[in-house]
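$ ./design --mode recover --in tokens.txt
reading tokens...
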């Protein structure tokens, strides 16, 4: 299990670096990311969320039989048609907000061994790809909201973090 970095951690705001070495450590990283994501009951996890400055993410949607690594992804096409979906993020636990995005995307990426692939995605997968891709450019889903909605989400996050710390010290004491 890897630590999941939260809103406010610097790594979540940086543009991540291309992956150049398709080696065993990369494979181990993606395996640990899948485990961490599944343990946290998420459907996607990007490298910066576990403190790693690399352009890669994993997506796992068991109901659709999807479990895939995207290395150095590029979104090469998005549909004109957009729609809302209630998004959450493991870096802002317990919160969610509706975000409007294109409904379909075509992504070009490499797998964990460096093999290139192109994937046309719709539905939840298209949504997850765009959300995770944003992480690689230092962007969170709340960055798609209006300034006042974003501010409100940050306040909710901070309140939850404070309550969690209080809860922890109560349990300790
Ligand atoms: Ni996220």
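writing sequence...
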């Amino acid at each position: 299990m890897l630590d999941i970095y939260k809103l406010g951690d610097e790594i979540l705001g940086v543009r991540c670096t291309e992956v150049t070495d398709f080696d065993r450590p990369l494979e181990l990283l993606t395996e640990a990311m899948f485990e961490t994501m599944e343990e946290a009951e998420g459907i996607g996890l990007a490298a910066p969320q576990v403190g790693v400055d690399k352009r890669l993410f994993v997506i796992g949607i068991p109901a659709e039989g999807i479990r895939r690594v995207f290395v150095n992804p590029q979104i090469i096409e998005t549909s004109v048609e957009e729609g809302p979906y209630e998004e959450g993020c493991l870096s802002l636990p317990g919160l969610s907000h509706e975000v409007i995005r294109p409904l379909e995307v075509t992504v070009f990426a490499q797998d964990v061994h460096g093999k290139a692939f192109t994937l046309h995605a719709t539905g939840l997968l298209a949504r997850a790809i765009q959300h995770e891709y944003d992480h690689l450019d230092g962007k969170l889903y709340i960055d798609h909201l209006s300034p006042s909605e974003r501010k409100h989400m940050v306040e909710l996050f901070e309140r939850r973090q404070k309550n969690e710390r209080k809860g922890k010290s109560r349990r300790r004491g």
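exit 0
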